[in-house]
Amino acid sequence: MVYGVVSYSHKNMPLQDIYKYDITRKDMSGLDALMLKTCNRIEVYFHSDSLFNLYNIFSRFDKASANDGIQGGEFLVGEDAIKHAFRVSAGLESIIVGEDAILGQVRSAFKDYVNEYGHGTLAQLFENAIMVGRKIRRETSKSNGDNILYNSTVEAFKRLYSEKDKVAMVGSGMVISGIVRRMDYAFPDINPVIFSRSDVNAARLANKFGLEHQELDIEKLNGYDIVISAIKGGNGVYLEGPKAIIDLSVPRAFLGKNALYAEDIMNNSSIQSNGTTDYIDSAERIIDIEVRRFMSKGEDK
Where are the transmembrane segments (predicted)? Predict the structure, then answer.
C-alpha cells in the first residue's frame, strides 16, 4: 500500500490562488480520500496499491487545478507523503510554526473521513499523525502559536506607527481581541476604533477596553492611517487611504502595496525566530522516529 498527497499551500503558491481553487466531490470521485482544507492549504491524501495509479490521481488534480487557473501544487508519495502528514499535524508546514489550530483542523478532517469511509487505510495514517502532533507539543517547549501571531502583529505595528496616527481595527473575533489586549498593554495612549459587522461583539470588545466601535464601513477606513484587520470572508478590496494595512483576514480582505499579510508579519518577526529553531529540530527528530515506526508496521511499502 502506497500513500500519496497532493498539496496546494502557501509553501508552493500565492495564498490568493489557493482561495480560488475549490476541490469538489467530483474531483475526488471514486477515491478513498481525505481532504484537509485550512486557511493556508488545500490537501488531499489517498492511497493505492501501485505508484502508477497514484500518478494517475495526481494527473486528475493537476488538470482540475489548471481549469481554475492554478499553477503549482506539490505531489508526494510513500515515505514523503507520510512525513508530510506528520509535519502538517506538528505545525511545521504552517505560516506560524507550531501553531495549535492546525492540530484541531487535522482532527476535524479525520473525523469527517471516518464518518464517510469508516476506519480505513487513511484512518491509520491520520491516527498516527494526530498522535505525533500531540506528542511533539507535549515533549517540546514552544509558545502558543496564536500568541506568537498576536505579539508579532504588535511588533509590526510598532515599526509602522507614528505619533498621532489614527488606528482602526476591523473585526471583533478571537484574533482582533488578542491583538487589542496586547495593544492596550504596549500602547496605552492609543485608542483604536473597532469596526465590525457584528455590533454585539464589537460593543463587547470595545466596552472592555474603553474604545469606540462602529459598524463596518469600508469607505470610512480610508480616513485612518493604520488598519489592522482579521475577518472571515474578505473580498480583496483596495484601500488607498491608510499608509499601512495589516490584514490577517481569510481570504484577504484588503489588497495593495500598503498591505501586509500574516506571512509578511511572521517572516519579519523576532518573536517567531526566538525558540522556533529548537522546536523545529526537536519536532523533526520525533517525526523521523515515528515515520520509521509507522513504516515498520507495514503500513506503507
Answer: none
